[in-house]
Design a protein that fits this description.
The protein contains three helices and six strands. By secondary structure, it is of the alpha+beta class. It has one domain. α3 links the parallel β5 and β6.
Length: 146
């Protein structure tokens, strides 16, 4: 069984083929994941995110998910952070991430948090299981003219 990482967005987001990029992918929800919509506002677009492993497991590098290829996990987190950082430049766009085990999409949210793209990239467990993470722009990376 794998971890599943989902992205909710107040507007449609570009899809990314992880088979083409290797490290990261954004795809439409499969029917088996439809229950995840319960955790995001009505009308939001919801997407399944792939790490280099083809699931959400590769975004985690903490003790719960020991990995011989921690550099691969870091690259998947870097790609995730770059994707959401670019998206957050759109005025008024709202984004959130939610992580759960596949098959547990309807389970209640256990925690809520807020993070910037830089914090996602730096964390060994950027979206802990059962946590809904609201994304905010990383003000430290903004240019003075922003």
């Amino acid at each position: 069984m794998c971890h599943a990482l989902f992205l909710g967005s107040s507007r449609p987001m570009p899809l990314v083929s992880y088979r083409d990029t290797v490290w990261f992918g954004v795809e439409e929800l499969a029917e088996r994941h439809e229950a995840i919509r319960l955790h995001f506002p009505v009308g939001w677009q919801v997407y399944f995110l792939n790490s280099h492993e083809g699931c959400g497991c590769g975004f985690h590098s903490d003790a719960q998910f020991p990995d011989d290829n921690a550099g691969y996990d870091q690259e998947s987190r870097r790609c995730l952070a770059a994707y959401v950082e670019l998206a957050l430049q759109a005025p008024g766009l709202e984004l959130a991430l939610y992580d759960c085990w596949e098959g547990a999409e309807a389970a209640p949210i256990q925690a809520r948090a807020e993070a910037s793209p830089a914090e996602l990239e730096a964390s060994l467990d950027p979206v802990p299981e059962g946590t809904l993470v609201t994304l905010r722009p990383d003000v430290s990376r903004r240019r003075p003219s922003d």
